[in-house]
Design a protein that fits this description.
Elements: H1 32-43, H2 49-59, H3 76-86, H4 92-116, H5 123-126, H6 132-142, H7 147-159, E1 163-165, E2 168-170, E3 189-191, H8 199-210, H9 218-230, E4 234-236, E5 239-241, E6 245-247, H10 248-251, H11 270-284, H12 287-301, H13 304-307, H14 318-330, H15 341-350, H16 362-368
Antiparallel strand pairs: 1-2, 3-6, 4-5
Length: 387
């Protein structure tokens, strides 16, 4: 085992006191990232259960949160995800699932009320990190044939229906909220990213369709999202890409779409977006879209100049790019993507991370760098790139 994977001393032992509120039950930034790492490593024979137990104990020092704002990355949903991914027979999961069922019913009722009233959503209603798509990814893995899984898919189908606002015929996922905690964003935006935008619902709908888990209108919803994103797809000398988001001025044709400054990121960039389209193509049998997605991913892997500027994280770093390519390569019968994996692994291993978080720190990078046996367990289902 290399020092950059499990021998990072910060990953050995959790702090004796939670660094902040909610830290224990946060998959994104707290104890559950290192817990997932050590559990996955132990399960594949590359680590010990003692370290995993220490981080799980830290995660449950305070009562498990069942707040309605909980998600795949926070509270009962996050803890259930970590346990199901690494120890699916764990007795605590049943109680956590009861909390998740209540959470889903509450959040879906609010979402449908919002749609009925003709209001636009906040990204946190539907996205991967905070919303129903993330919880849906857990349920698709845990209980694919359950009513709640179908309920979330049905909601996502409905999310794709257009809404009228201020004289514009907008996609149903258009939000008046500003992205990335930015200031004024007149007219709102449509987010195209995987973490907080419509690529997340696209990925979940497609993963479900590939598994034969379907609801009315699912295929049409996938096509609707893909077609809308096609209108904003750009191709240049560096390959195919999509913007992070579209503003109202851009939507109305009064301003050009941006060149994505996070082009190689899982969260807002081409790797996440292209993998979502790749999954859609595989689910619907769209060979042209599949080829476009594979070419876009290959171009990302070959972009040495941009890779050199990235950190080692999953969210917007080299580990995220590596994992997107790894999962897509497993679905690609050619060597177009697989041939890039050794170099991407080397690049991810050489990059630094700050702290232990799963998304932006060393535990996420270490998971991506575990030996191949660890990747037979879908620890990255929460990234919506496999399932």
């Amino acid at each position: 085992m290399t020092p950059t994977v499990l021998d990072d001393p910060h990953l050995h032992t959790p702090p004796a006191i939670d660094p902040g509120p909610g830290w224990g039950q946060s998959l994104a930034n707290g104890a559950l990232g290192p817990a997932l790492l050590h559990l996955a490593a132990a399960r594949s024979g590359n680590g010990t259960t003692e370290a995993a137990r220490a981080w799980l104990d830290a995660a449950t020092r305070t009562p498990v949160s069942s707040h309605p704002d909980g998600s795949l990355y926070c509270g009962a949903g996050a803890l259930a995800y970590v346990l199901h991914t690494t120890a699916p027979a764990h007795p605590a999961i049943a109680e956590l699932d009861a909390h998740i069922d209540t959470l889903v019913r509450t959040r879906l009722a609010a979402a449908h009320d919002r749609i009925e009233a003709g209001r636009l959503p906040a990204p946190s209603e539907f996205d991967v990190i905070n919303g129903l798509t993330g919880i849906g990814a857990y349920l698709l893995a845990r209980a694919p044939d359950s009513r709640r899984t179908a309920d979330i898919l049905t909601y996502l189908v409905r999310l794709t229906a257009p809404l009228h606002h201020d004289g514009d015929h907008l996609p149903g996922w258009w939000s008046l909220r500003a992205p990335l905690s930015r200031g004024a964003f007149p007219g709102g935006h449509a987010n195209l990213g995987l973490a907080h935008g419509i690529s997340g619902p696209l990925a979940l709908l497609s993963l479900a369709l590939r598994r034969g888990v379907t609801v009315a209108g699912q295929h049409r919803a996938i096509t609707r999202i893909c077609t809308w994103m096609d209108d904003w797809r750009a191709t240049d000398t560096d390959g195919t890409s999509w913007p992070r988001w579209i503003t109202r001025a851009q939507y109305r044709g009064a301003a050009p779409a941006e060149t994505n400054p996070m082009r190689l990121a899982w969260c807002y960039g081409t790797p996440g977006q292209a993998r979502a389209h790749h999954l859609a193509a595989l689910a619907t049998g769209d060979e042209r879209r599949r080829d476009t997605a594979v070419a876009a991913l290959a171009a990302c892997a070959a972009d040495a100049d941009r890779i050199a500027t990235m950190d080692g994280s999953l969210c917007h770093g080299r580990a995220g790019l590596l994992q997107c390519l790894r999962r897509a390569a497993a679905d690609d019968p050619t060597a177009t993507l697989a041939c890039h994996l050794p170099d991407l692994e080397h690049q991810a291993r050489a990059a630094a991370c700050t702290g232990t978080p799963f998304l932006e720190g060393s535990s996420g990078r270490a998971l991506a760098l575990l030996p191949a046996a660890a990747h037979t367990s879908p620890w990255d289902t929460c990234l919506l790139i496999t399932g």
